[in-house]
Design goal:
Blueprint: H1 3-9, E1 10-13, H2 17-26, E2 28-33, H3 39-50, E3 54-62, E4 66-69, E5 72-75, E6 79-86
Antiparallel strand pairs: 1-2, 2-6, 3-6, 4-5
Length: 98
């Protein structure tokens, strides 16, 4: 894979109440990823950037909400997120990354 592509796949960690519960219960991390990223690309990017072993990747597309504004109806953009299950004994600590 192109080294520049690795940095374009993972956009940010997704922090929510559900993501926190999943991280504690199932050793999973949730990321916002590029809309054209595949499961294999997400796996390669996480393993290369964080030096961990990935056990499983699940991706889903979050549909953008339709919002009412002064000028009529608007639409937020769709985005993709990935649930990445890490192998036992592996962990990603975002507070230590600089």
């Amino acid at each position: 894979m192109n080294p520049e592509r690795i940095y374009q796949i993972l956009l940010a960690p997704h922090v929510s109440e559900k993501a926190t519960n999943v991280a504690e219960a199932a050793n999973q991390i949730v990321f916002r990823v590029a809309c054209d990223a595949s499961k294999a690309e997400v796996r390669i990017a996480v393993e290369a950037l964080f030096k961990v072993q990935v056990e499983q990747v699940r991706v889903l597309v979050v549909k953008g909400k339709t919002r009412r504004a002064r000028h009529g109806l608007g639409q937020r953009s769709d985005w993709k997120k990935a649930y990445v299950r890490l192998a036992p004994g592996h962990d990603i600590d975002f507070t230590a990354i600089q």
